[in-house]
Amino acid sequence: MGFYDAKPLLIIGNKNYSSWSLRAWLLLKAFNIDFDEQLIELFHPSATPILNEHAPTGKVPVLVYGQGDEKVTIWDTLAIAIHANDYLTDLDIWTGLSKSNTESDTSNRINSAYCQSIIAEMHSGLMGIRSDMPMNIRATAKIRPSAACLADIARIEHIFAECLTNRSSDSYLFGHFTAADAFFAPVVLRLQTYVKASGIILTPLTEQYCQTILNNPHVQAWQKAALKETRIIEEDEAGEILFVEGILAK
């Protein structure tokens, strides 16, 4: 087996709550990268030895493969995306196209640059929506959104509009599925949890894109697994819980 033929292991957190884990997991699934997954319990002592062995920051997700001196460790979701693009897939994750097409076509380079930019913006910012709307897939919850949260939603809707205007009704942000869709999928799940219950109105284009993401079979598989989880992590619960779906439903 060659060095880069070793099957990667993706270590993730609880699927109901771990938005960063979803980003890495969905990216690998969408680009047909074969991997094993190991789920740890967030904020639980059982996770400590696994994180101590594999995660330099003590956080998930982390992608590892190889043994001994040839072990490769990639932490942070953006680093995982870059590494996957460089070594683990023949497709370009920023455009969803073959790498030769991306390199030879100016319009694809423009899309690639935009894709990378909105991913970096998501990765380093939009703290208002993260703070007010933690990912909680099984819940429907009512919050009183802060000005920062509403500003983030407006910015996200602007990004969606710039990407999706004049595309088909079932289109991903750049037509083909890209890393941007993987990074914004948890945003869609946050909106699903809080928006309607909190009286927040989204544009039709945003609603359309949310449905496209929710129709993605990998997103549906993640949600199905999340609804089977029983752990409640108080640190990731927000607002007035109006309804709970899944195994914890009453």
UniProtKB/TrEMBL annotation:
Domain GST N-terminal: residue ranges: 8-92
SUPFAM superfamilies: GST C-terminal domain-like, Thioredoxin-like
InterPro entries associated with the record: Glutathione-S-Trfase_C_sf, Glutathione_S-Trfase_N, Thioredoxin-like_sf
UniProt-listed CDD domains: GST_C_3, GST_N_1
Pfam families listed in its UniProt record: GST_N_2 (PF13409)
Domain of life of the source: Bacteria
Protein name: Glutathione S-transferase family protein
